[in-house]
Design brief:
38% helix; alpha/beta; 349 residues; globular; 9-stranded mixed sheet; 11 helices
């Protein structure tokens, strides 16, 4: 059974910048989403090695989606690296990445690959134009004896995959992909505004509402909880996403939005806590920050960056929102420009 938060679309957590997420994020996806996805090499042999056994098992259950270059034209969108003036959404993506990479290459201390490499990119995960451009700028070097991969710095790796994850998430079809990372650096790169491309966004801490099983919990145990308490999970996620969606649309009246939806969120939270308490699993609260791009018209003194509000309390916990500037996506579908930062070691007291 799927959450179906966005009309007929399935809501999938899109992990980046690596292929295999930590177990904790896998468990988060199983509890609060319709599944998890990540960007993988297109070559089946390489993919078989890159994707861990846990994800392969979830793929057989229909709960993991490997996204490849051929399927969703991921980094092939960067083909027009030498023509950044094109006006399509793909051209915008290439232009943003080109600006970011050019800025890295122009630094006094260019982030060059190390030996051994701290960052790698699969050739089947990128286009040929990307590798050629990175090599010319001194940001990439071949790996001796390795025809499948080339070396980059960790910063370059996170930059390319982070921008890509956010851009592809906006191309909604039968599935809605929500960028989700445990790397603060990767999230910053994905959202960092560029000249003449800025929009306001809400930031909201959700960790109190979304407990996760403690480290070491078997995935089989999480799957059993997912099935047993399906109704409670769905009600909670619908309530949370309704709040986020309404905050995006009615951005000038956050307190009013919360007041209208508080009862629904309070009841959903109480039901889910009851389910958590009845399980034998040990649970913890991690910091999970949702960033929600506001409608294009948002602006003015009321929504200056870094301005925040106390929305209210749910189950005794305070819910706050704050504003920040981010880079807007340029896509035909921009109705769910949401992203998440999960601090795996960020236990909430």
């Amino acid at each position: 059974m799927s959450v179906r938060i966005w009309g007929t679309a399935v809501a999938v957590l899109l992990y980046y910048p690596l292929v295999n997420p930590p177990d904790e994020i896998v468990h988060q996806s199983l509890l609060y989403w319709d599944g998890i996805a990540s960007v993988v090499p297109a070559d089946p042999e390489i993919r078989a090695v890159a994707v861990g056994p846990g994800l392969r098992e979830l793929e057989q259950r229909g709960l993991y989606t490997p996204l490849t270059l051929g399927e969703r034209r991921l980094l092939s969108d960067l083909t027009p690296l030498y023509a950044p003036r094109v006006t399509s959404s793909d051209g915008h993506h290439a232009s943003v990445l080109l600006q970011e990479l050019a800025a890295l290459a122009a630094r006094t201390r260019t982030p060059v690959p190390t030996e051994p490499p701290e960052g790698i990119l699969y050739r089947t995960k990128t286009s040929g134009g990307v590798e050629e451009y990175l090599t010319r700028q001194g940001l990439a070097v071949p790996i001796p004896g390795d025809r499948r991969r080339f070396a980059v710095s960790r910063e370059v790796q996170e930059l390319i995959l982070s921008i890509t994850a956010r851009e592809i998430s906006a191309r909604r079809g039968d599935r809605a992909f929500f960028p989700y990372t445990d790397s603060r650096t990767a999230q910053r790169m994905a959202l960092r505004p560029v000249a003449r491309a800025r929009t306001l966004a809400w930031e909201m801490e959700l960790g109190r509402l979304l407990p996760v099983p403690a480290p070491g919990t078997p995935t089989a145990e999480v799957l059993a909880f997912r099935e047993k308490y399906q109704d409670e999970r769905l009600r909670l996620m619908r309530a949370v996403h309704r709040v986020l969606g309404e905050l995006r649309r009615d951005y000038e009246h956050p307190a009013d939005v919360f007041a209208q939806l508080r009862v629904e969120l309070e009841q959903a939270t109480a039901d889910y806590r009851s389910a958590v308490s009845s399980s034998r699993t040990v649970w913890v609260h991690r910091s999970v920050t949702a960033t929600v791009a506001l409608a294009a018209a948002a602006g003015g003194a009321l929504l200056l960056p870094d301005l925040g509000w106390l929305l209210g309390t749910v189950g005794g916990f305070a819910l706050n929102v704050a504003t920040r500037e981010i880079r807007p996506v340029r896509s035909r579908r921009q109705d769910h420009d949401f992203s998440y930062l999960h601090r795996v070691r960020g236990t909430l007291a």
